[in-house]
């Protein structure tokens, strides 16, 4: 076993760490042995494990676990970026969420991480022209996780959605790499117009709880959006915005606000 673990660590250190943590978790809490074996240790790769979790969580009377497993396995096999993004997202959650102490936690327990990985499968289906199946995935992700991401939306790597309740991301939204957002965030439109109508979020942006970013606007890289803000116009890079409607209240405060997760800011004049 030690020799296998060493070899795995050199090939896929993220998955190797997940497996190591899984064995330790079973030692500490044997009652979770069945769940951890079926979800993690039974699988030869992280992609296979994620496909299993996808099928287990989204299965219903309308679509069986077996069919969903085949869909996800095929998606991961055909698009290596899905696995690379899943690893980047996992490391982002571990690095930024103080409640995350092990790599296995997001895969097993965090609905934000699981919802984003399910969206990624749905987005892959959308890109293949399998739009109705992609819509089915969107529907089930919304029903199961309370996260509604249109499968046509474009989302980068290293995404962390903390708590992830009532997240809405519209059809033409674009989210860059290394973005962090909290619960009740909306990236939406401003009316019933068709076409390109949703926000474009730059790299490294931090979006606070309950913030609404509306319309085809651009949020510059490494910007902070304060909790509860309603953003209706473009925001330059490296700024902090707050209020309803939001206005610039200062600089971002650091080079990587999405990584630091610092939501506090001094009002102008302080």
UniProtKB/TrEMBL annotation:
Tagged with keyword Ribosomal protein: no
Cellular compartments per GO CC: cytoplasm
Classification via SUPFAM superfamilies: Trimeric LpxA-like enzymes
Any one of the GO BP annotations: cysteine biosynthetic process from serine
GO molecular function annotation: serine O-acetyltransferase activity
UniProt keyword list: Acyltransferase, Amino-acid biosynthesis, Repeat, Transferase
Reactions catalysed according to its record: L-serine + acetyl-CoA = O-acetyl-L-serine + CoA
The keyword Amino-acid biosynthesis is annotated on this UniProt entry: yes
Pfam families attached to this UniProt entry: Hexapep, SATase_N
EC numbers: 2.3.1.30
Lineage top rank: taxon: Bacteria
Annotated pathway: Amino-acid biosynthesis; L-cysteine biosynthesis; L-cysteine from L-serine: step 1/2
Similarity comment text for this entry: Belongs to the transferase hexapeptide repeat family.
Stated name of the protein: Serine acetyltransferase
Protein source organism: Paragemmobacter aquarius
Protein encoded by which gene: cysE
